[in-house]
Amino acid sequence: MTSTRRSLLGQASVAAAAGTALGFPMIARAQQSFNWKMTSAYPKGSPFYMDGPGSATDLAKRIADMSGGRLKIQVFGAGELIPAFEGFDAVRAGTVEMNHANSYFWTGKTFAAQYFTAVPFGLNFQGMNGWLYDGGGIDLWNEVYAPFGMVAMPCGNTGVQMTGWFKKEIKSVADLKGLKMRIPGLAGKVYANLGVDVKVLPGGEIFPALERGVIDAAEFVGPFQDRRLGLQKAAKYYYTTGWHESATVSELLINKAAWDKLPKDVQAIVSNAAAACNVISEGWCQKANSEAMEDLVKNQKVIAKPLPDSVIAALRAETAKVLAEAVAKDPLVKKVHDSYMGFKAKYDRWVEVSEEQYHTKVRG
């Protein structure tokens, strides 16, 4: 072998070695993995929220599968790592990277959070998705949470919820006065203004409180979830109007510093997995609730009916007052409110010639 050839081979070996050395950091960065914790406001094993299609555990599995294991999320039910309603503070502090709950639990932190779960007499599932994904809702959501160092996105939806369970029949607004009722969010403020003694209890505490008479009425979710808690055994009047939550969004709350460390493709995986769960969970609710409602009425002798028109009118008027007061106090609330209601006004006109025609003329 000539000296020239030996020199060229040596140079090639050095170049190859250098290229390999330079390539390793790129490969390492591309395969960087993350191990996160996600807490929930709902107990371990809860259908829809913690188990089943579109749940927190389903979301974590989808993210792990889609990312090839680059983002693994350990899911904790309420009380396993933190109490049910401390997810906001835990994510804000960086104790956990994620929380799976509903934003209206945080109205004590910022009233605007209410709009991203449900507004009484507000948007339905289709309309809510329209506002969030294409009407600027998610951007406003993140603007509201920016001072807290968090980002959020929808990751589930129950569709319309039921007004709830009552031990006694509601015939007029007067029947609400002094009533002890489990009800969270903005609806709780509306009820309180009409004389209701409002209680906020985690799901697991509702049945014993209703059974023992600690509360006289309770709202939770809908037929399937309510039946699972056994609420039909403690109260027989099931009001179906669903005025308070016409589409209830589940929130994926994320620590922004942790979010910013994720590669862009992994961020996209999280966003798309959450969007998938948003639709899949609502589809599951439609099937589960239709079957459970039939059972409750036919087999368990539940009295299911809408609230009287006079009560609905009073609740609607009081809702408008509560919202107006909040809007007057906070420019950011006003910004969110105006966006939500502006979208709703246009959407309602569309519904009049689409969904409303289906329900009144086509469905039969």
Shape: globular
Class from helix and strand fractions: alpha/beta
Strand order of the largest sheet: 7-6-8-5-9-11
- Termini separation (Å)? 92 Å
Portion of residues in helices?
40-55%
Number of strands: 11
Order of helices and strands: HEHEHEHHEEEHEHEHEEHHEHHH
Task: Please characterize this protein's 3D structure.
The chain contains 13 helices and eleven strands. The protein has helices at 3-30, 56-66, 87-93, 125-134, 137-145, 185-193, 206-212, 223-229, 256-261, 264-298, 309-329, 331-353, 355-362, and strands at 34-40, 71-76, 98-101, 150-157, 164-166, 180-182, 197-199, 217-218, 237-239, 249-255, 303-305. The chain is globular.
Summarize the structure.
By secondary structure, this protein is of the alpha/beta class. Helix content is 50%, strand content 13%.
Name some characteristics of this structure.
single chain, 364 residues, alpha/beta, six-stranded mixed beta sheet, five-stranded mixed beta sheet, 11 strands, 50% helix, globular
Topology overview:
Blueprint: H1 3-30, E1 34-40, H2 56-66, E2 71-76, H3 87-93, E3 98-101, H4 125-134, H5 137-145, E4 150-157, E5 164-166, E6 180-182, H6 185-193, E7 197-199, H7 206-212, E8 217-218, H8 223-229, E9 237-239, E10 249-255, H9 256-261, H10 264-298, E11 303-305, H11 309-329, H12 331-353, H13 355-362
Helix pairs in contact: 2-10, 5-12, 6-11, 8-10, 11-12
